[in-house]
Protein 1
Amino acid sequence: MIKRVEDLTIDEAKEELASLANRIAELDVAYYRDDAPLLDDAEYDALKRRNQEIEQNFPALIRADSPSLRVGAPIATDFNKITHTVPMLSLEDIFSDEDVVAFLAKVKRFLGMADSEDIEVVAEPKIDGLSFSAVYRNGQLVSGATRGDGTTGEDITANLKTIRQVPLSLRKGTDLFETVPDLIDIRGEVYMAKEDFFELNRMQEEAHKKIFANPRNAAAGSLRQLDAQVTAERRLSIFAYACGEADPITWKTHYDYLQQLKKWGFPVNPEIKLCHNIKEMLDFFHQITEKRSSLPYDIDGVVYKVNSLELQNRLGFIARSPRWAIAHKFPAEQAITRLNHIRIQVGRTGALTPVADLEPVNVGGVIVRHATLHNADEIMRKDIREGDMVVVQRAGDVIPQIVRVLPEKRLPDSKPYVFPSVCPVCGSRAVREGDDAVIYCTGELFCPAQQIEALKHFVSKDALDIEGLGNKNIELFFEKGWIKNAVDLMNFKANHELELIGLDGWGLKSAHNLFEAIEKARQGVPLERFIYAIGIREVGEATARLLAHNYHSWQAFRSAMESAEAYEQLTHIEGIGPVMAQFITDFFQEEHNRILLTQLENIMKIKDYVAPIQKQGPLFGKHIVFTGTLETMTRPEAKAKAQAAGAKVISSVSAKTDYVVVGANPGSKQTEAEKLNIMQISEKEFKQMLDV
Ligand code: IVH
């Protein structure tokens, strides 16, 4: 068995979260942006689920770039982009009845409700398709978009319009008083019914065209067509279930909104039920589980949503998912197959990750070819050997990991797996750090695999985003000895222009395009992207943004990080824990990092941080500290509200603090505020400042 989450040490948990974050980010790009999944959905879901389980047990270790905080991946370049006025969020996944109980308890705690009080929750089947947003102005459909990365999606207006179930204009009700809003962004799921999926594959087969693995992939492939004509030929369906921006909002509950959607002409899932207590919620889940195979469309679980919009507003969001909704996913499915080979991957930070190459097997409708083995301990614990028959499991609808081996089917000459003691790429010693479960290559920047991974990271979409420099090219230029690090890359044109033009497959035009892309990055890269690009261990996009937000300029950030107070300062930033702070300070203490950074500073421009446009109320950019008990809201609620208003919530009072919000029975923080002469405000004043 894999190590139970409860049995993980802090360090093991930390490392596993780090490797999960890296891996999942990579898989997301392949899946969401490139439509070319690297793993089966089942395998993918298993990774996400494991990540979530660890996070639940070690909330302090949740990484700023945790996959649980992410929605999808950056969009492809070929569609126009549409920015969602209200972000399209994702949902946290849970897998058991106990998790549902915990969810509801947490909601009540956040709202300051008694456990015995009931709360209305809408339970909906979780449709396994892809989400859409459809904006109507004065009742007319004006644009349609995919979720994309949650902030920006692809413009699929033309495609969406080909789906018959999408109303081109909102139907006005018979009631005289019933009108349509001036503006509404209606959201839901595009899916392909099972029957239509089988029919499509039958036709594809006849025409010797691509066969789709499952209805979800077929729906995605059909909707994201540059030629909307193709979309029109596919039979797609929709269910509407959510709302982005809307003006005016005339409904008070989610359930009422769903009724309104029906009146406007939208299909709303007929199974949806308004539940009044936990029993009704769980009953719904179990009934839907029974019904699942007979439904005409694929579902992968149930979504629970707090019914009252007022409560939804109070609950707000955590990172990228609402606190007022959650996805209860169906349990895992299993199958037996042979493990052909154990492969070791070397990551950017040198982590050696074992991967099982499997004899392809169908697990609940999805072909599974690989499974992660996490680390050497996991292989040992389960005594997994090459050639073994293994039980593969995927949780959720499309997913996998190795549950156990079947010793009775073991080949007589099988030998226990020996984890390599040297890096398979550079031959350096492979070691554990402390009681860390992960084994690292000690080659650091001398290990070609690590150098290459660092370069890939540096130019990747969310970092410098240098187009025309895919993984293959980086590997090629690296092998030729043209680029070993980021500085070589920035100087690529000066040193290797002629060689590149002479290279097979390259010509004047393509070389020119690449040099131009590099030049663009040299001319100016946003601070948050640069911080992300330099590849500090654990620092993902969100942390990089947080750091950029706090320091504004590269000079300010670098000098702070090289000062004696760096660690101290970092731990005062809400969202940066001690582990992360240590990795960041360590990074800036490394001589070779400093040399590289100085060289980069000299050849490229790092642009100051520009905060996203936000309504700038009186709390915007202020450092605030809470002390004592608040009366009308709980502490997490207050903190979330303050952050949403652009304030930085700090855990302790210092000279930099702007306001201390003082509740009943304040603690030592108030004394401290008095000493430092920091402005103290009441809960009421705080709320007034929020409202502006
Ligand atoms: S509500 C803020 N309701 O699941 C809440 N999502 O994991 C937004 N999905 O991106 C989502 N059925 O693509 C919601 N009845 C349902 C859903 C549903 C399927 C998908 C949707 C979303 C994903 C989140």
Protein 2
Amino acid sequence: MIRGKISRILLSESDIEAKVKELGAQITQDYKDKDLLCICLLKGSMLFLSDLIRRIDMPLQVDVMRASSYGESTVSSGSVKILQDLDADISGKHVLMIEDIVDTGRTLAKTLDLLRFRQPQSLKICALLDKPSRREVPIPIDYRGFEIENHFVVGYGLDFDEYYRNLPYVGILEL
Ligand code: 5GP
């Protein structure tokens, strides 16, 4: 059963669309003539990935991986497990990690460690949402969409107990 309600729309569909367009243009400029591999962590980032890559105007490759999520909780348990690895060999590639939201930074830090070990030529991060007040592990975000306050948000790929991912906007969830 779906729980909670949206108490406020934080980012509208058009706010997101404009930002995705801006990020895509910047990434296109920075990576032109490079062999780019865009990767994301399922499932929260899949909408952002699919919109963003259509705004990157150059040939690129896409791959996905899956790490353990919060499940029915709104706080990170602190432990992160890789549940599904990439198909691609990333050594020597320019890798762009596309993230829905950086909260404590634990999931991303752990994933980045793993990816760095495989020696990509470069490894950068593009995050749609950044909650800096919650950070526990420093994360260098190269492309940032929006900085947000400490709210639990859903929509545009982000879930609560697998619901709400299909909302076209990002809203604050009230339980
Ligand atoms: P972190 O490891 O940075 O604490 O959290 C990473 C993951 O937790 C994100 O990729 C996202 O899936 C989930 N997460 C963090 N904050 C939120 C939030 O406000 N809403 C939702 N739905 N998921 C979040």
